Amino acid sequence: MPAQQKKIIFCIAGVLSFACALGTAAAIGTQLWVKGTILCKTGALLVNATSQELEKFIGKIQYGLFYGERVRQCGLGGRPFQFSFFPDLLKIIPASIHVSVILFCTVLIVFALVGAGFFMFNAFGSPYETLHGPIGLYLWSFIACSCGCLIMILFSSEVKIHHLSEKIANFKEGSFTFKTHSEQFANSFWIILVCSLVHFLNALLIRFAGFEFPFSKSKDSGTITGAADLMY
User: Fold this and answer.
1) How many CA atoms lie within 13 A of 9 on its CB side?
2) Is 162 a residue whose pLDDT tops 50?
3) Whole-number Å distance between alpha carbons of 168 and 209
4) DSSP code of 172?
5) CA–CA dist 198, 16 (Å, integer)
6) If you average pLDDT over every residue of the chain, what do you get?
7) Which three-class secondary structure state does DSSP give residue 119?
8) Are 53 and 75 a contacting pair, CB within 8 Å?
9) Average pLDDT over residues 47-75
10) Is the preceding peptide bond at 80 cis, omega within 30 degrees of 0?
11) CA distances from 199 to 6, 25, 143, 226 (A)
């Protein structure tokens, strides 16, 4: 492939990596990771609410990695409550998983920026054979993509397996019990998915630029080796 086309491909990959770093940083600071509704089970049972009356007992909840908001509905109107994970909810959430999600988000931002810098360096500079070269670009893209996948897996397990929404909904609730009525992942979670796919796409762009995947054997070297074996 001509050098000019390689520069264009590396520039596109660099811009995508930088955009992913900004997107991940923005996603960390929002409370748009999970949105859902919570049912005041105690209140609904007290009045034996029907399907139409249940709307008066269904509140809302949304949260991110650091803070969130819930609106409890127990038949007397919505009552909002702001909360933060640190230090308010630290005792009731799976803290190790939650901290790991934040840590991998930070690593994703760092390696996305590193990858963006190296892509631009390879586009406009003289690439080295190791860190700045194709092997390094594959490495940064692979690490960033892996971090994105780990973030989604860990956060999904925290929400679905450890019932994070119910734990938040029942935080500091003495006589009332809340149950998750519905929940779905919001924009910030899907931004992480898009970033993971972008870093995977970057690896394909490197291959499209004409550089072999790491640890892949060249057909020419295999042919030369076979010919050498025939000589002896």
Assistant:
1) 19
2) yes
3) 48
4) T
5) 7
6) 84
7) helix
8) no
9) 86
10) no
11) 17, 16, 9, 37
Handedness of CA 206, 211, 217, 220 (dihedral sign): positive
Q: Which two tokens stand for residue 117?
A: 């810098």
- The answer to whether residues 32 and 186 touch, using CB atoms and an 8 Å cutoff, is yes
Which range (21-30, 170-179, 182-191, 220-229) has the least confidence?
A: 220-229
The answer to whether 155 and 189 are in contact (CB under 8 A) is yes
Amino acid at site 198: V
Distances, alpha carbon 196 to alpha carbons 107, 111, 153, in Å: 13, 12, 12
Whole-number Å distance between alpha carbons of 159 and 164: 5
E strand map for the chain: 34-40, 58-63, 67-73, 78-84, 178-185
Correct CATH for 3-33+87-176+186-210 of 1.20.120, 3.40.1130, 1.10.287, 1.10.3470: 1.20.120
